[in-house]
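Researcher: Re-running this chain for the archive, since the previous output was lost when a drive failed. Same request as before.
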Amino acid sequence: MTTSNNGHTSSNGDGAHLVSSPLLPEGYAIPRSRFTRASTRMRELLRDEPYLFGPGVYDPLTAQLVMYHGFKAVYFSGYSFAMGHLGSTDMDLYSSVEIADGARRTVSALRKFQLTMAVGDPEKGVPPKHLDIPPLIVDMDGGYGNIFNVQRTTELYVNAGVASAHIEDQVLPKRCGHIGGKALIPVAEMIGKLRMARAVADDLGDRDFVLIARTDGLSAVDAPEPARGLPLAIERGLHYLDSGLPDLLWCEFPTADRAPVEEFTQQIRKRFPDARFAFNWSSSFKWFNEKNPMTFAELGQMGVSFIFITLGGLHAAGYGVSKLLQAMNARQEQGYIELQRQEWALGDDIPSKSHHFFSGVPYHHVVGKAYDAARLGNEFVEELPAEKVV
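Model: Regenerated structure tokens:
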């Protein structure tokens, strides 16, 4: 197993970490980490890595792409889910059950994807790819209600196999941290929500469940305390860490400016030298206009253990589909042919270029044959020239 400082992992063919599975025929194997609880795996990564990075996704397919390309964590973004699931914005418009179900389906898809990639495509000479399942970190917004809503949501998350969740201190209905007009609940109410989330995870036997406390104090326009701005965010962060509940502390910042991030982490660490932080390398910022944008490595040196880009996957999807539609609008079928040329360009690893391979058709044929399922097996596969079909 090789590891790089950017949070990637790749298999080097070493079979020491591979084991068999009853869901694979004899001769195939998967990484041993499949049988490690996701939260435990995340704690191992937080301990061993200079920082853990999770690209933001909103559905199983985007999460599978993150896994395929070797990232060690996946962040399930609430804003991305609102846009991808409802076609709307991040203002508490979806329910706890909806996002929990999205997370459940995503965890299930990642586990299935590990199996399908472990088979490869024997008929086309595509070798197995042994992928670790990245832990899924899921937005819990403000908990979707009071402590009993938090209780239900945490139970759904833990039972779904989610590794971690973050709760924020906004008055409900909340809004994206980069939308104006935010108000904060009392500190005691926020700590009550954190207590409940921790208690539920422990009760379900998942004592490794990673709990992240988020404060929107820096940009809040209404709060019970007299302080505002950075002093309020620091005060809130210290209160949350005083409770002993969160594993990571996240302050939502309104811009990509470096100074507030440095000040926040330094002030928190004066009282809690070992404090660890989460940081949203936010899609709301025009990073391309920053002369000296904060790097992941620099954030790691500040004590940031988990870094994520909330809407990275959604922006990429929006860009790619828009480019395809523009091309098809201008050149009809040629626009789609151009897309296929790019997908199938030599040397470019785009696993979804064959939707049959990416969705696991070879796996279903191999396992279907082993289980003697009706009309599943390579003898039922129509022989067609590779240059004609995917």
